[in-house]
Amino acid sequence: MEASLGIQMDEPMAFSPLRDRFQADDSSKKYEHNFKLPGVKKDIEKLYEAVPQLGNVFKIKDKIGEGTFSSVYLATAQLQVGSEEKIALKHLIPTSHPIRIAAELQCLTEAGGQDNVMGVKYCFRKNDHVVIAMPYLEHESFLDILNSLSFQEVREYMFNLFKALKRIHHFGIVHRDVKPSNFLYNRRLKKYALVDFGLAQGTHDTKIELLKFVQSEAQQESCSRNKAHVSTENKISLSGSAPKEPDLRSATKTSVKRPYANAQIQIKQGKDGKLVKQSKTVDVISRKLAKKKTVSTKVVNSGVIKKTASSCPTSLTCDCYATDKVCTICLSRHQQVAPRAGTPGFRAPEVLTKCPNQTTAIDMWSAGVIFLSLLSGRYPFYKASDDLTALAQIMTIRGSRETIQAAKTFGKSILCSKEIPAQDLRKLCERLRGQPSNAPALTSDTQGRASPDPASSEKTDQKASYLVQTSRAQPLGNSPYEGDSRGYGNRFHECPANLEGWGEVPDEAYDLLDKLLDLNPASRITAEEALLHPFFKDMSL
Length: 541
Ligand code: ADP
Ligand code: MG
Ligand code: ZN
Prior knowledge:
- This protein has 17 helices and 13 strands.
- By secondary structure, the protein is α+β, with helices and mostly antiparallel strands.
- Mean pLDDT is 73; it is low at 1-33, 221-262, 270-316 and 445-492.
- The chain binds adenosine-5'-diphosphate, magnesium ion and zinc ion.
């Protein structure tokens, strides 16, 4: 495994001795595939062109995922005559920072391959194109199976998720994007795999060397903010939008009433939780209006980065190229500023408020949100397109006073114009489960006006977004999950509902959920502790 991060040009990287068993394909065959969409066919052709050595080893069959920072393909590899192996090929966007790419790879090579953490077989590179080849795990769509899972399956799912999280946390990896589309589940084989270390960061004592060089989002944002505009306030920007609130606030007055419009939330960072002077209240509506501005700010930023990257082609062939070291040239390169934030609905309160020291506890919160979906039958549970809306939605479940109190412990002051009581988790889940739907429980958009944010929804999550668009009974007000059941009858999932075990959900389930959704990261349950929780009493590692 030594020098495993040196990405070789024009040939597969030898992560395993199996390499020589690959038989080179007849290259004339490589464009013969069964295509579903012309766009996919084009993408596959482009990938073969960008990384031609792939054609010697793989037949790329289909595109199975597309996110902001990568596209994933299903391919087959001819190992020996007659035996084909399915491989997932992750093609990272060429503008990704080399350290970011190498760190993602290092997470897979060092922590992956066991305990439900995806491993890696090979890596290919040509110029700025990097393709990671992983074992393919066929998996279900979370939304499709959500309401057909028996209670026992839910226990097994969560247990296996904690097993994966225990492993990566042991390596000092904070995944930062734990959600169903990054935790692959093969129901038939009872196999699980945590994937996608594209957002991962290291703890202070991380064992993943390269994560030490990956800038945290908070650092990135403060850096970009300082560059973008001078801000003398110590105000925590909720999305990095330019401080042009007067216009936005006047626009707010004319806007229609929307959920959370009344709950004005503001976050400030101050010493000992004290508020900093000159505060302005930003409500969710103005945040939504501010979005356009935010986007344009980000476009400018990423434009700058792109330009930097393309104007310095020599940086690709610096001292550290094809070695397992990162040279000073690479370390001094600007990191990508476009925030690689996880999905707002899965982000912990300390992430939403941009607390600078984030720990592995943020992944446990995300696991809690998945558990909340499993227990309530609603996915996505929180459907928020921005952090402030997500925070408001958390308050509707965990209580505004409780959220404010917890935020104080990590140095953040949240102002909320309205007091929202905490919900009893069992009552909440049972009420939601009683409604015949797997539509999202909480959404920031009103009935018939849903506009899922394409930037934040992955291909694998699009069905959920579709549900948001088509569901007639969109929640309203501050208790949106209580919306009536009109329109919830549509069953988009293929599996029949499974009532097994749901009649007597033990208190342990809600106790674990409560400990995962602990607003205070310092007291939130760890993966190791969760595995020992009474909820899993008869299960063994
Ligand atoms: P992104 O950073 O673009 O989200 P991911 O690594 O999460 O990339 O992969 C995107 C999607 O591709 C996943 O949600 C999953 O559906 C599919 N995928 C990724 N890795 C594998 C794999 N090893 N086996 C099967 N499918 C995979
Ligand atoms: Mg992903
Ligand atoms: Zn270098």
